[in-house]
Amino acid sequence: MPENKAIRVFLADDHPLLRTGLRLSLDQIKDVELIGEAEDGFSAVEKIHADPPDVSLIDVDMPGLSGIGVIRLLRKSFPHMKILVLSTYNDDKYIHDAMQAGADGYVLKCIGIGELTKIIKSYWTGKPEISPYLVHLTTAPVTGDKKPASRESSDLTVRETEVLTAIAAGKGNKEIADMLYISLETVKSHAKHIFKKLKVKNRVEAARVAIERNVLN
Hints:
Blueprint: E1 7-12, H1 16-26, E2 32-38, H2 41-50, E3 55-59, H3 67-77, E4 82-87, H4 92-101, E5 105-108, H5 113-124, E6 134-136, H6 151-154, H7 158-168, H8 173-180, H9 184-198, H10 203-212
Parallel strand pairs: 1-2, 1-3, 3-4, 4-5
Antiparallel strand pairs: 5-6
Helix pairs in contact: 2-3, 3-4, 7-9, 7-10, 8-9, 9-10
């Protein structure tokens, strides 16, 4: 971390009291800056893409797009971003899912602000802290028990998968068209085919099914 440069942190959590508490606490830390917040997964992905932080703190259980889904999308777009899970669950399944998605660490919410700050700084400097509130994760793929994509999901073309990834990130049709250099009508056509193949009725359902079936991995 360059001298005098604050670590830019983003927080995604659906509990207002937790966000307020962390915001007030981090405001007192001179070398950590909370640059943004989100209360749901889709907003988190959209805001982080607009202004990428150094470290993202992601609640594992959020409405809309889950924390695991958020991590998968962020890891595809920002391979070097430090992503830490915030969770009340000290549970092997959540830890395993976070590891598969690409999180760097798994932090329990019972942690104090001083300990959390040390963990944020340690990951940003590349020297992860040892803490009873922290589980270190690896982004290496886990083999053997990953749920395979369904036949319907695997029938998606490369372009349809790109469009679906953008939909899951909360992008509108115009944004997707500009991002992929295709026409608005082409985006609408791809979306129609995606909905049919995934057997869903709208964008929210498509994003949820994509995450559940590992289409975006």
